Amino acid sequence: MPPAVHPNFQKLKELYAQTPVILAPMEDVTDVVFRRLCRELGGDIGMTEFVNVEGLLRGCKNARRKIRLADDDQLTAIQIYGSDPERLAEAARFAAEAEPFFLDINCGCWVPKIAGRGAGAGWLRNPDAMVSMAKMVVSNVSLPVTVKTRIGYGPESDMPIVDLARRLEDAGVAAITIHCRTAQMGHSGAADWSWAQKAREVVSIPVIVNGDVKSAADAKRAIDETGCAGVMVGRRAIEHPWIFREAYGLLRGGSSVAPPTAEERIALCKRHLRANVEERGEPYGVRCTRRHLSGYLSGLHGAAMLRQKLNLEDSLEGCLAILDAWLERSAAAA
Fold this sequence. Notes:
By secondary structure, this protein is of the alpha/beta class. Helix content is 49%, strand content 13%. The chain has helices at residues 7-16, 32-40, 53-58, 61-67, 85-96, 112-115, 127-140, 161-170, 194-200, 216-226, 235-239, 243-253, 262-280, 284-287, 290-296, 303-311, 316-333; strands at 21-23, 46-52, 76-81, 103-107, 145-152, 175-182, 207-210, 230-233. Helix 9 links the parallel strand 6 and strand 7 (207-210). It starts with 6 loop residues before the first helix and ends with a helix.
């Protein structure tokens, strides 16, 4: 008898049929706390931070932390990266024991210290090797395996992504997320979503469009222009995680969702601070929340001064007092 197909294949297929809005994997950002916040605001699928396969297999504390999934992480994928196919396959087997929704292979990170060593987008220099690697990983686990990549390493007049998508499907990859820039572009220039459309037209597996999705309107336009199965949001989520509920409303309900109120913005600051301190302790839990505060406080009266005060405060109690004082002043002014 043929081996049973893992039930997550069907779950993934059903979710992609609903045009999901997915939280992109981001180092030092998409930890258990932030994934939970985004999920509660409408994010369908969460991704872990990048997990280095060498660190994972050596027992590195930080790598092992990244693959620990909470009870509410049922729709979270673990993303792994590395330059050695056999080590990637071994790490995939290890990561699968954490029971993620699926496994994702990072073939898109353009940062020189990663791509320059052959990992991440470095695989795009040799599409044949990339396809062989993906096939090896797929054959070593029963979970769905997806790939996140870019349209090419660059500069190229004819990007390899269309033929590569077809070959990755043949290798058994369950879905492909395409960041529509070359590796050499990094985050500069505009993402060209037409490449996601071209790739989607030659495969039967879901294609997810990524890059320059900065609003709910962008998410809808990306889906309308490409016909892709879903959309992935990266950097915009760091400062505005409400993009998930806004995109959800536009894509599934067909109507715009009101932006967050001042009270909602302050409440999320407090919630994120408390959760990070509970997870990481003080002062690190406070400090690692600061990257989000500029966006969370955007548009508030005196936001710059408020942010400056918070950036100088290392205690949870002090930060909460600063935010409560702003609310009191705002109420008095009203």
